[in-house]
């Protein structure tokens, strides 16, 4: 009775064979994150290491890491490597949040870098937002908030000088702009609007991200007796931050 040799048998495809190679590499990294082998902040195997481990082309390993970065699972730092992303922090929408306090409550370090504060003439857009004549004098501030030295918010603020005349005299290395305003300028109305946008090249540079990656922009206005106090755009990298709130139906707010 004849027998068939092993070499003549048709190989049986393994379940993984039907999965694209780049997806197999992605799944491998995801499993290591899920089982705790790779914790937040730890270095992920490099493209070359993945090439050697899986026997795939470098472009395959690159695609796997690129897609993981695009999904916010890892953070890629040029010339340094890829790292497991921290869980996205969430900021509330139902009150004026103190971002430094939120960051410190997570056990992380907050730092505010002032990019500039000046008195400018209101553009048509700013004048409309603050209900002032075009060209009226307004205060303008820009700064970046860092969490563990990673930029998480670009603050672009306009203030009505009549409502906060001492704003520019403050030392914003000691007190955040929003904290100063909340403590010293009364308000009785708040408006929050959230948009998904692409940052400009300059904004992307300040936030240490690629210009093609999306951002969440929280725009806030406050009023006192119908007069606008401040109008601020808070730009967050979508891959690092989220915005949201939880509240009870009796109107009591719960942060979360």
Question: Summary?
Answer:
The protein is α+β, with helices and mostly antiparallel strands. The protein has two domains: 16-84, Winged helix-like DNA-binding domain superfamily/Winged helix DNA-binding domain (Arc Repressor Mutant, subunit A), CATH 1.10.10.10; 90-254, Chorismate lyase-like (Chorismate lyase, 3-Layer(aba) Sandwich).
| Overall pLDDT | 82
Helix and strand sequence: HEHHEEEHEHEEHEHEEEEE
Query: Which CATH first-tier class of the largest domain would you pick?
Result: Alpha Beta
List the quaternary state of the chains: single chain
Query: What strand order characterises the main sheet?
Result: 5-6-7-10-9-8
> What structural class do helix, strand and pairing data support?
alpha+beta
The named CATH superfamily of the largest domain = Chorismate lyase-like
Shape: elongated
CATH topology of the largest domain: Chorismate lyase
- Most strands sheet: 6 strands, antiparallel
| Beta-strand segment tally | 13
Relative strand content: 25-35%
Distance between the termini: 73 Å
Q: What are the low-pLDDT stretches, counting only 5+ consecutive residues below 50? A: 1-17, 90-94, 250-256
What gyration radius follows from the Cα positions, in whole Å? 25 Å
Percentage of residues in helical conformation? 10-25%
CATH hierarchy: architecture of the largest domain: 3-Layer(aba) Sandwich
Number of helices: 7
